[in-house]
Design brief:
Blueprint lengths: L4 E3 L5 E3 H7 L3 H11 L3 H9 L1 H9 L6 H14 L4 H4 E4 L6 H9 L3 E4 H14 L3 H7 L3 E10 L2 E11 L2 E8 L5 H7 L3 H12 L3 E8 L5 E5 L2 H21 L5 H7 L10
Parallel strand pairs: 3-4, 7-8
Antiparallel strand pairs: 1-2, 5-6, 6-7, 8-9
């Protein structure tokens, strides 16, 4: 066991192995660490502006159907034995107030039967692709990592970790435009760079599945995308340090609009 320590954004020193063992708990990973460490998701609003990032950490996130569907698909594809442990399936046709209350009261994620059936059908279609099945075979699912990049703590979970290789599973509404949106809208090149750095691997593969049709695409991360991910991360961490790191709430508010927006064309 390693005794390495890491200082999180709240100033608390943790033994790294203790952090890693706690990261299997979703409430710890998305709750406490969601504020005490950055991630590829938190860099997306930072790449827009300091104000956009501030909104993301101070406002309640809106419900997004695609996020729920993605979670279901990941569980089916990577950890099917945990479906019953994580989800309570209800027979409602749509998400109504009673379903929201059940979600608040249940120790499981409450999902609709049609949401489960929809993603399970896509999962079964994906399995018909030999290359997709082979990519996931032998990998260790949902492996956590945490470490310092640009002197900032970052957290991550690899969908499927292999020897010197990460396979990341994505679902999309439109497979034909995924390459553009993946890099320019969702900034998945940043995610790949962070994961390759934290896990110290040299290969990263996106396994992308189109909803409804089950069409599959497999994309290896290019050197160009790796470098663009690094550049975006450098920009975002510079912005975080300037506007948020070790700043009081008053200092953040006073400096929130003093932000020259930069981007990639």
């Amino acid at each position: 066991m390693s005794n390495d320590t890491i200082t999180l954004l709240d100033g608390i020193d943790w033994v790294k192995d203790e952090l890693l063992s706690n990261m299997d708990d979703d409430s710890f990973y998305y709750g406490y660490l969601g504020k005490a460490a950055l991630s590829s998701s938190s860099l997306k609003p930072l790449l827009i502006s300091a104000k956009e990032y501030y909104k993301s950490i101070t406002e309640e996130p809106e419900y997004k159907q695609q996020f729920v569907e993605g979670q279901i698909f990941h569980t089916l594809a990577l950890e099917p034995e945990k479906m019953d442990e994580r989800y309570e399936i209800v027979e409602y046709e749509r998400r109504v107030e009673s379903v929201r209350r059940m979600n608040e009261e249940s120790d499981k994620e409450v999902i609709l039967r049609k949401e489960y059936n929809f993603m399970n059908a896509i999962y079964k279609k994906m399995l018909l692709c030999d290359e997709a099945r082979e990519l996931l075979e032998g990998g260790i699912p949902e492996v956590p990592a945490i470490g310092m990049i640009n002197d900032i703590p970052f957290r991550a979970k690899a969908d499927s970790l292999h020897l010197d290789h990460i396979v990341d599973l994505k679902t999309t509404a439109k497979l034909d435009t995924w390459l553009w949106t993946g890099k320019n809208k969702w900034n998945y090149d940043v995610q790949a760079y962070i994961y390759m750095t934290l896990f110290n691997v040299s290969r990263f593969t996106f396994l992308v599945v189109e909803k409804v049709t089950g069409r599959v695409a497999i994309y290896e991360l290019s050197e160009r995308a790796y470098e663009s991910g690094k550049s975006k991360l450098d920009l975002a961490t510079e912005r975080y340090k300037k506007h948020f790191l070790d700043k009081t709430e008053e200092e953040i508010q006073a400096n929130l609009y003093n932000d020259c927006i930069k981007g990639f064309f």
